[in-house]
Structure formats: C-alpha cells, structure tokens
Design goal:
With 133 residues, this protein is α/β, with parallel strands linked by helices. Helices cover 38% and strands 20% of the residues. The protein is built from 4 helices and 6 strands, in the order βαβαβαβββα. It has a 6-stranded mixed sheet with strand order 2-1-3-4-6-5, sandwiched between helices. The chain is globular. The termini are far apart.
Length: 133
C-alpha cells in the first residue's frame, strides 16, 4: 500500500517515511503542496498524511484537492495546532468535521500512535461492505 506524506519539514517527512516503511508500507514523501497535488493526479494512494501548515500553500487546499482526486481515500491531517488525535476536525480548522475518512494526528506524536492510526484507517478501508439481500 502506497501512503502519501506531505510536510514541508524534511525531517518530519523522513521520520514518518521511516516509521511507515518499517510497518511495511510504500511511502511517497513530498515537501510542498504543489508536488503533493502532482502526485495525487499521477499515483494511487491508500491514504494521505497532510500537514495543515505548509510553507507554499494552505494544507486545507491540499486536503480538498486530495478529496477531489480520491474521494474514498482516508486523509490524516497533521498539525501542531491539533490538540488530540482522532477522527473529524476541531472547530478551529477548515474542513467540515462531517467529512468521512478525515482523521487528525497531533504533532508531536509517538511512533506507536502513528502505527495504530494507520492500521485502524487501512483496516476500515479493507473491510468488506455489507450487502443487503
């Protein structure tokens, strides 16, 4: 499974990439929003981790573009301003908390929290849909 990581801090990208590769994922890490949008238009990703505070553009714009390009792809928005990890968005952030498949990851985070979040997100994505007979 290929995971997109978008963070303008090279060190953060490297740490996340290392942790996810260790968990068996393939990782595409980019350090700006425009490169993320290019990657989203070219490649298929199982999930994306996107920093809200990018240097070149608003992370919310990248999240909207990711949702438009891949409507069913789980998205993890990362920020030092997010008070706790989980699902949905706090009121102070842009995207609507009703958006399905949107998760939060507070920075700094523990490696085990990132691993567990990705397992949970990707397990939901692979669960079979119930079919009414």
């Amino acid at each position: 499974m290929n995971i997109l990581v978008v963070d303008d801090e090279v060190g953060v990208c490297c740490v996340i990439q290392h942790l996810l590769v260790r968990e068996g994922y393939t990782v595409t890490a980019v350090t700006d929003g425009r490169l993320a949008m290019d990657a989203l238009s070219r490649d298929d990703f199982a999930a994306a981790l996107i920093d809200l505070n990018l240097a070149d553009m608003d992370g919310n714009d990248v999240i909207r573009a990711a949702r438009a390009a891949r409507p069913m792809m789980p998205i993890v928005m990362m920020s030092g301003m997010v008070l706790e990890s989980g699902r949905g968005t706090p009121d102070l952030l842009g995207p609507s908390p009703r958006v399905v498949g949107l998760h939060r990851l507070a920075k700094p985070f523990k490696p085990k929290d990132l691993s567990q979040l990705m397992r949970d997100i990707l397990a939901q994505d692979t669960e079979p849909l119930a079919v009414a007979v």
